[in-house]
TrEMBL record:
It comes from the Bacteria. This is Butirosin biosynthesis protein H, N-terminal. Residues 155-324 form the DUF4872 domain. It comes from Streptomyces wuyuanensis. InterPro entries: BtrH_N, DUF4872. Residues 14-142 form the Butirosin biosynthesis protein H N-terminal domain.
Amino acid sequence: MTTVTDIDARGTQHCETTALGVLLRHQGLDLSEPMLFGLGSGLSFVYWDSKNMGFPFLGGRVKPFDITRNLADRLKLELLIQETTSPRKAWDSVAACIRADHPVGLQLDSYYLDYFSSKIHFGGHVVAMYGYDDHKAYLVDTDQQGGAVSTSLTSLAQARAARAPMAAKHRSFTLTTPTNPPSPQSQIVPAITACAEAFLHPPIANLGHRGIKKAGKLVRTWFQRSDAPQRDLPQAALLMEKAGTGGALFRNLYRDFLAECADPLDSSHLRTGLTLYAEAATLWTEVAGLIKKAGESGETQLLEQAGTILGDLSHIEREAMQALSRLDRVP
């Protein structure tokens, strides 16, 4: 068995921040999961639907791997990305990292992983790999999936080669900290304001606060959108609360990030944003509960209620991001 030494195989709530935590702790940089998510400007919203989708998807974060890119840019980390169409080259690259005592991040389709509890194709899943033997790969995934886990080398190869939604070409990556990195605290304001600007000025109506408003209108029609609402609506609610989001469609993580920033920043704008995101997190969990109950009961009025709350959330989050966008302008 070949493994990285002194690995801290700690699973957390979201897959990409879990992997980032493993890689960075091995470099001596231990940041909380909310801080990793926030410094990566991870919060967003997307209402995603198309003709080839069985049911709409509500997303609460930026695109897969954007958190990693943003975090590396902010903290001046050396981000080395490997992509290839060759399964052999892909494996050789990862095995070489492990032999060199470097944990490596992998983007893959979670459907094929032996231990994965929810069999849904998703090519934007991220894990950290820290070892292998003749039969298995040893990974760190979220707490929900078991933290330190293993999967067969065959299943890992299938997961990396898959062409699921958001998939990459056998993507693997490593992170290296510079000799004199910027302090994470110095990057809090740029990370928050960048996230706020993207949320407030989305290029299309499916994103940001405009996307939440759109979702508030369309969620009311979900009984007509689904051939099996008893299946699709509870699953949509489950994805909002349990699928590595930290609850409340990532709003719990961002609330906790803002709370962690409150002392070093001591800003009225940040306190406003924190108060509003604490309210938003509670309401997102309420929305998920209404959608779940609607699917189970068939009551259309529950989707009407969810739509009304989503309309309120569009205004609440817009107000929160407007306050947070002022962090770099006014003390």
